[in-house]
Amino acid sequence: MSPESRGLFITFEGPEGAGKTTQIARLVEQLEGAGVAHILTREPGGTPLGTRIRQVVLLEPDLQVDPLPEFLLYSASRAQLVGQIIRPALARGEVVVCDRYADSSLAYQGAGRGLDAGLLAQITQAATGGLKPDLTFLLDLDPAIGLARAATRGEPDRLERADLAFHQRVRAGFLALAQQEPGRFHVLDGTQEPDDLAGQIWAVVENKLRMGQAEAHASSSG
Ligand SMILES: Nc1ncnc2c1ncn2[C@@H]1O[C@H](COP(=O)(O)OP(=O)(O)OP(=O)(O)O)[C@@H](O)[C@H]1O
Ligand SMILES: [Mg+2]
């Protein structure tokens, strides 16, 4: 559990087309079925400001956005989302499920675009006030497979149009982050069947929710 909150903050990360949005929908069904209070949000987006930023950074591929301003726009969306949506939901004791978060910036703008990791960490700290997920599911797969999946959705966005070498660096960046924080990250092979992935994800979340209840019980009775 986040030390500053009673809720549970879960993020999904991974390359394009890895199955994040698919698995998030499955997790939300499970949470609903279990009667667990939750919200679903995404980056960039999730607030009126974030939705406008999403339009600029993703959906206008012909607009020139250099790496640093790109990162700052993501960070602006993130800061608004944390303050307006995520922290209040965690304070209410809810589960927050977020489709991408700060790890995506470290992987895409750091490993992918080559911005300095120290600078990214510093600005991310400022944007989030240091709020980190309790659990992060990294759906890992060869970016060629993910991009081929995503291509079936129609017009590629800005990041989907980047070259394969970029996406390989992003994948490696995600895996390096997971190695640094093995307690937070659960790395799953994204080429598995959706049902199998959903089962593995729910097992981890259910266990974490149970641990949270046990902690709450221990603190209220002791
Ligand atoms: N485990 C899976 N096996 C095969 N295909 C899958 C699997 N999970 C999702 N897909 C398909 O791959 C495509 C991309 O899935 P999805 O949109 O969930 O990925 P994403 O990680 O959210 O992508 P993006 O990074 O672009 O948001 C969809 O067409 C989806 O139906
Ligand atoms: Mg998605």
UniProtKB/TrEMBL annotation:
Its EC number is 2.7.4.9. GO terms for molecular function: ATP binding; dTMP kinase activity. It catalyses: dTMP + ATP = dTDP + ADP. Keywords: ATP-binding, Kinase, Nucleotide biosynthesis, Nucleotide-binding, Transferase. The keyword Kinase applies. Phosphorylation of dTMP to form dTDP in both de novo and salvage pathways of dTTP synthesis. This is Thymidylate kinase. It comes from Deinococcus puniceus. The gene is tmk.
